[in-house]
Amino acid sequence: MQLLMCLHTEVLNTVTYCSGIVLPTSLSTLLQKMSKQTDSAAEVLLEKKGAAGIITLNRPKALNALNLSMIQQIYPQIKMWEQDPETFLIIIKGTGGKAFCAGGDIRAITEAGKVGDKLLQDFFRGEYRLNNAIGTCKKPYVALIDGITMGGGVGVSVHGHFRVATEKTVFAMPETAIGLFPDVGGGYFLPRLSGKLGYYLALTGCRLKGRDVLRVGIATHFVESEKLPALEKDLIALKSPSKEKIADLLNSYHMKCTIDQEKEFALQEHMEKINSLFSANSMEEIVKKLKQDGSPFAMKQLETINKMSPTSLKLTLRQLREGASMSLQEVLRMEYRLSQACMKGHDFYEGVRAVLIDKDQSPKWKPAALEEVSDEFVDDCFKPLGNDDLKL
Fold first, then answer.
1. SUPFAM superfamilies under this entry (predicted)?
2. For a tag site, which of 231, 291, 352, 370 has the least CB within 10 Å?
3. Is the preceding peptide bond at 384 cis, omega within 30 degrees of 0?
4. Cα 28-34-40 angle, rounded to 5 deg
């Protein structure tokens, strides 16, 4: 049975990705015909329409979760389009109507970790290189984040120039609940959100919906979900589009959208508390502040935090504090070190068991308390890996 998870999710059906093979013309034609017939089954569709390169995440049953094979196809294609004088912009979207991309390939990573498979290195290395390719892409990159956008889905959208949210968008980075940390460049974009909002989102896994994703700066534009096909068509139709022309078109759609315009930002009344309570230098201090505050909001956050992996919480707080003054590349190198530390630990496998496999929602974290996660252990997780460090 497929196990889905609106964090980093999914079951891996690895397809070997080959490049640079020259096929005889007859065989090549045959394969092209076959690929057209099986396109609907392809996990990711890569096509050129007009001036645009279009990436379609095509695993609707798995909420378009990213696996290694998809990453290995998207990365070289972005690099190719970046160099192509006939490609002026890149669009990424998901199929199925429920999710843009609900995360990454957690189930396969868990299985690989149990047997010491090199997927543990390959997946994170490939995913973070893809995040960097998007963050440094010279061509305008437009992510249509319609529906669930979590974990790995955030990584393939948030670092691009334009992120278009809709009333269906649900954003979250809920990794601390499964013994992980908000990776895919979370250490870069989260501490750069207003006040301490990014710290709050990272530590609690709080979900943001619809227009709120725009209000906090994760999305750049907000457009009605049913208008996205028209927007895509208009983007494709632009002649030699510059970044300014693309921005103008997105702005025109954005200005016409009135859905939830009158609704107040869901966290507005709590922002003062968030900025105060999550400004502490340690997790123990944050917990102490929440207890001292005693308000219903503070108590709710305390209850949430108490369910999370203590190790993940400590790693995450330091990740964001350090990431606040780092470049995206430095953050991704740091996160790769953390990913490998988590893969060697206990909590990730226990978190996946409790949330995904047995679904008892009762993980037995080791260590079980924040005070038991030593500074020395945390320091070790951030240490360089020498030749094994992420190369970008």
1. ClpP/crotonase
2. 291
3. no
4. 135
Catalytic residue among 10, 105, 146, 175, which? 175
**Residue at 323 is within a domain:** yes
Contact 274, 196 (CB under 8 A): yes
Which residue matches tokens 């429920």?
98
Asked if residue 191 belongs to a domain, the reply is: yes
Whole-model pTM: value is 0.90
φ and ψ at residue 9, rounded to 5 degrees: -130, 170
Pairing label, strands 208-209, 162-165: unpaired
Domain membership flag for residue 26:
no
Question: What is the distance between the terminal CA atoms of the chain, rounded to a whole angstrom?
Answer: 36
Catalytic annotation present for 104: yes
Tokens of 3: 């196990």
Contact 134, 160 (CB under 8 A): yes
Instruction: Count the domains in the chain.
Output: 1
Q: How far is it, in rounded angstroms, from Cα 218 to Cα 158?
A: 6
- The 8-class DSSP code of residue 231 comes to H
Residue 264 DSSP class: P
Q: Which residue is it, tokens 């949330």?
A: 355
pLDDT tens digits for range 183-213: 999 999 999 999 999 999 999 999 999 999 9
Residues constituting the chain: 392
| 152 carries an active-site annotation | yes
